[in-house]
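Weekly puzzle thread! Below is a chain. First person to post its structure in token form gets bragging rights.
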Amino acid sequence: MENRLRAARITGVLIIAAVLMVAAETRKEYHFPVGAKASVSVTNPYGPISVKPATGNEVVVTAITHTDKVEIDQSQSGDRVDILSHLLAGADSQSGRVDYEIQVPSDANVTLHSSTGPMRAEKLQGDVNLEGTTAVVEVRDLNNAHVHVRTMEGPVTLTNVRDAHVDITSVSGSVVLTDVTGRFVQVNSASGAIRYDGDFGTGGEYLLTSHSGDIDAVAPGYASVDVTARSVTGQVENDFPLQPKHTPFTVKVGSAFSGTMGKAASSVRLLSFSGKIHFRKR
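Winning reply:
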């Protein structure tokens, strides 16, 4: 009987807490008319940020707060819009959380900051800058854009990013690029794994480097690349029949290789100190 009463009390407390949490949720929406190539900056220590293209020439910000421990600071100066989650005294990762859904003109330049995220950007054409600590970062369906990502531990995923300039730096988070092409694609990770799955496009420069993380590059048989792979102490594997080329280092089976495929339209360099490198045929 006593156990039943205790369970009933706990259930009652949880129900009251849930009701209070729902009651504390506040949804706010802001509209900012802007011109071409507007700049939008969102800083949100705790909580998700999602950015999609708008139908008109305005920035639409929908913000959901869950407690009274955080406020939304918003300002506009010309075509620049700044959004900030202002944490009040006593706020933590739960009470200070804000959920953002942002709509921007497709050519807008977007900068997102979030410690915990996740952060997501899709179908944009301007500069996309994302910085996080443990935040999950997802970028997809971009054309002719500049993508810059800085993260500590959060995983980074880019999907269907075409004709782009890509620059990603991660300390320990994994980085996955699927169908990513551009004039310049660079990924640098200290210990996180790097995976590229695509055809390396035409006329681009691809540099994937890691200190101790593994690098896995997957390409079709028709890829046109000038490829160099080298790991100082790790293992290096290649699935492709390459045409040999001269290199400034000694090519050693199992630790380095270099060669060309097709017309060698794109330059591909896969470099690691102790991680394993595999140039894999799809």
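Puzzle host: Confirmed. Bonus trivia for everyone else. Residues 46 and 97 are 5 Å apart (CA to CA).
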